[in-house]
Amino acid sequence: MAKFLISHGKPFLAIMSVVALALFATTLYLNRQINSRYQGISVSSRQHRTHQPGPLRIADATHETQDLASLNLTSLIEDERVWLAGCQLPNGALAQAPGSNTVIPYFANLAAKTLVNSNPEAAQEYISWYLSNLNKPDQWGLSGTIYDYRVEYLAPGEDSNSAEIFMQPTRNYDSADSYASTFLSLVADYYFTTQDKDLIRANLEDINLVAKVIVELQDEDGLIFVKPGSWTKYLMDNAENYRGLMDWSQVLDEEGYAEEADRFKYVAAGIKDGINHVLYDPEKGAFAWSLSPIWKRFPKEGKWYPDGVSQLYLLTCGLISPGDPKAVTIWHDFNHNFPEWKTGAKKDKFPWGSVALASLIMGDSNKALEFAGWANETFLLNDRPYPWYVLESANLITLLEHILAMD
């Protein structure tokens, strides 16, 4: 097209056609990346998921969920822990669901963090699996990343009663930055909770390599690109990046590596500064959920993901304290736009237990309680249909543990 226009004496139109094509391609890319994150899958593993969408009973906005006071929360937690444990493969990896043929380390990192208290051995096995599968380097030349994996279940051998597995890397990942940052938070939580310092010390070099993934992807404005070759920086990812580096720097301080800890804190400070001064618009009273050379994308009223929920990551990752006026505004606007999120009444089929956790952070425990009751009725009592997956399970366990501690 461009060559045709130039040959016909229309160079301006040729340039505009190239720009239009670039905009169109960028839009397609962004939409594909965004959709893959909230669907609990990766772009590369979308076609390999075994748990396809099935019948899902979404509660009406006026539906009264079961009173949690009448339930045995300890029993609910234990049952969910059993389900979550069933996601772990013999090699330590965490699949999307029991029997699923997809492993996505981003979701597995967050789920493993929930295992640290209740099943530290399982968390240790997952951490060891992750470290043993680091790319050095990956296909884009970046070391410390990890690919998504496809899982093939093989028939039991003659000398075995259990099925064996074969795992194949997809040679792709949804985001290099958030995979790294959530792993760093997991490792730090494991270190301080279990006091198993030997595991961390033995793998210090590799864990630092994971942290350097974030450093390598940092732009001049302090924000982190989502992956090599991408021009996009996401609010959600950058909130996680800040948290991950700060968590890991605490481990390094504890181990006596003050200089290295300070370097990662410096990078984290740049991320926080970029979020507050590059992504935030005082007139809109909101943060852009993504930034690319073409545009900043701010939340649209009534759009759940990534627009609405992205703002909550500032709360759950500790960038804004609950009493901060910005936090109050974020939570008020979110509930104004999605008043019945706690009973699943939104244009999104995923439960989003992370929103209920944000509700607890903001001191809005009644909404968190209502969500827990709805999730129990909709998913747990119905054999956990898709889209119940490893992250939602972990979020519910964490939520119920906090609710139980409140009594």
Describe the structure.
By secondary structure, this protein is mostly helical. The protein has a single domain, classed as Glycosyltransferase (Alpha/alpha barrel). The chain is built from 15 helices and eight strands. Strands 1-2-3 form a three-stranded antiparallel sheet. The protein has a three-stranded antiparallel sheet with strand order 4-7-8. Helix 4 runs antiparallel to helix 5, helix 4 packs parallel to helix 15 and helix 9 packs antiparallel against helix 10. The longest helix is centred in the N-terminal third of the chain and has 28 residues. It is globular. The N terminus is likely disordered.
* Helix-strand topology string: HHHEHHEEHHHEHHEEEEHHHHH
The CATH C-level name is Mainly Alpha
- CATH topology assignment: Glycosyltransferase
Evaluate the radius of gyration.
22 Å
What is the tally of helical segments? 15
Oligomeric assembly: single chain
Q: State the separation between the terminal residues, measured CA to CA.
A: 68 Å
Mean pLDDT: 87
**Major beta sheet, specifics?**
3 strands, antiparallel
Q: In the CATH classification, which architecture applies?
A: Alpha/alpha barrel
Counting DSSP E segments of at least 2 residues, the number of strands comes to 8
Derived from helix and strand composition plus strand pairing, the structural class reads: mainly alpha
Q: Can you tell me the overall shape? A: globular
Q: Bin the strand percentage.
A: 5-15%
